[in-house]
Each structure stands twice: as structure tokens, then as C-alpha cells.
Amino acid sequence: MSISELSQDLIEEILCRVPAISLKQLRSTCKRWNSLFNDKRFARKHFDKAAKQSLVVMLTKNYRICLLDVNLNETPSIEGRGELRRVSISKVFHCDGLLIYINKGDTMMVVWNPFMGKIRWFQHIDRDKTHYDYVLGSYQDDKSGNTSYKVLRYMSWGSKQKLEICELYSSSWRILDVTTDCRFYGESRVSLKGKTYWIAFDEEKRQLDMVSFDYTTERFRSRMSLPYQFPIVSYQTLALSGVREEKLSVLLQLRDTSRKEIWVTNKIDETTQVLSWNKVLTLDYPDLGRCFLTGLSFLFDEENRKIVCCERRMSEDDYYEAADWVYIVGEDNKVTQLVFGESSIYTPGLYPYLFGYVPSLVQIEHPRRKR
Fold it and tell me: What is the 8-class DSSP label of residue 13?
């Protein structure tokens, strides 16, 4: 029996398990398959069932978003593979294969699926919203039964969090009547299972923990503990990351020690009530984490037990100059490093951002027509 003789249902069941990167090579095979890849229902089915292939992406000091070729085998290596898009970007966030980014100058919010080559220039940003951060999450639409997306924006500085939200299909912002007893700390935020997770600062207890936002209820969930319940002054370095779209991971370093610890949670799904942490790696590399609490981002590879991380490091010869550094560090503390681009004038608060991008067929929603 040839492939053309297989039923449509069977073809879907086969293709929805093929990783997205491999699936892209099949788009030109026939018109029926190509139309299937553009089907919203199949895109969601594929996202839920296919094996995830993660690419390493970095937002650089030059406001560019670049793809890195990272080899984590016996002879680790790092190499830049070029820009994903030739546009200046100041902030970026990833959820389900979609990127939401803010252009340099903070004048426009854009939703983009690099894998599918689809983009939507979402809306202009008002001048009074230029200090806001933007994140993206998913929810189940009661009317259509499909998975849809919302954008949450919030003040990125100050003790009081002002929160606004909008559905991608409406482009209309609503002020959320919710209060938080903490503020989001640093640049560490991660999307997992449609929810957004932050490291948060409890101003009353003066310590750090985690908080997540549920886009279905539009409420924050119960606070979650970090591996250590220490005051904020106890930390030298702290960063949050995701692991294979299943778990959360933190890289932390306490003050008065050069050791960095990698902790990973249990698998997280809709039924998860309690997080448990497991220390999986201890590194002793003094040069890593020079940017203190907020300036480092990382990815942890469970299979190879290595981390890939990046930070801005100030020059030892000139305090006013800095460069982006990317590292691979493993259990043996052997380090592979790459200086990404040339040194430039150090800008406080501007850090490189490393994240795992998981290609998907998820489509970008557009405003619905009014009936």
C-alpha cells in the first residue's frame, strides 16, 4: 500500500507525531499535506503529541535575535548561525512556538512564528506604556473549544504591579482587577503549559520565591518556594529557565561561595499541586555569574548534564566596556566559551537573553470579524 492510499485520519495520526523541524521538509510533498500543516486543529494536535525539538536563541546587546548552533556532546562547541529576523528587538518572550517581541524604541508589539514564517504587527505602544513588559500565555476558548492566546503586560519596575490583558483575537486591552503581594524580580520569566512563571520578591518577608499566572482564570496561582527559603541578600546569582517544556529549573549561587547549583522541578501539568526540587548539578566556575542577580540567563540539558548560559561581562581593562559571553559548562567544570560580538559601552539594565525556542505549527490569531 502506498502513502497516497492511506486514509486522511491515519495520515494525521502519523504526521502529528513527527517533530516540527522534520515535518517542515514534507510541506512540499503534496498539496494535501501542505494544507494540513496550515490547519489550526491539526497544529494544536501536533503541538500536544509531537516530540519537542528545542533551538537555542539569543537576544544580543545589539538588539538582534540570533540562532546559536550548540553542540553538547563530548567536544562541546558554540557557533552563531545568523539572525532569525533583521529587525531591532528590545524584549522577547516565547510561548508554544510563538514569539512576542517589542521593537527597539518600544513603539510596536509584534507576534511572530519564525518556524512558519508568519508575523502580525499587533499594535502601536503608547508612550505611557514604554516601561511595561509583555508575556504570552494560552487558555481554552469556551466558545470555539480551541486553544487561544492572551497577552499580559505589566510595569517592569516599581513596587505596585499594574496589569492589563488582551486576547490576541481582539487587540483590546482590559485592566485586571487583581493584586499581587510581591513584585516580579529581574528578567527571569518562563512559559510552561500555557502559564507564565516569574521569580518574585516578597517585600514583607524580604525573600524570593516563584509565582505563576493562569490565563484561563486571569489570576495568579499560589506562591511556590525556591529550593532555599533565604532572604534576598543571601543570593549572588539567580535565574529561572524551562526544561523540555515539562519542568522548571533554577541556577542559583549564594553569596560568599563560587559554587553554582542547578535545581530542577518535577514534571508540571494541570494536576500539579506541589513543586519538588532536585539538585542535579553543582558547578564551580568563578567567572560565571559576574552580573549578580539579574544579568544571567541559561538552559539546562538533562541528557548531557550541561548548561548553556550567557551574560554581559564588563571588561577587566575598561569598566565602561562590556561584551556578551556564551558558555557551556558541565559536571567536570570544563568550559567552552564564545564572545558574541565586539565589546561596546556598558549599558546598565541591558542584558543578553538566552532561551530555548521550540518550533511549532501554532498559528497566530487575528482579530475576529464582528457579526
Answer: H
pLDDT value for 293: 41
pTM above 0.85, yes or no: yes
pLDDT above 60 (res 94)? yes
Q: Which residues fall within 8 angstroms of residue 171, CB to CB, at 6 or more apart?
A: 122, 123, 367
Distance in Å from the first CA to the final CA of the chain? 47
**Count of CB atoms situated within 10 Å of the CB of 13:** 13
Radius of gyration of the CA atoms of the chain, in A: 21
pLDDT in the model for residue 350: 59
Q: 150's torsion region: left (phi>0), alpha (psi -120 to 50) or beta?
A: beta
| CA distance linking residue 146 with residue 140, whole number of Å | 6
Measured between alpha carbons, how far is 149 from 166 in angstroms, rounded to an integer? 9
In tens, the pLDDT along 247-265 reads 999 999 888 888 889 999 9
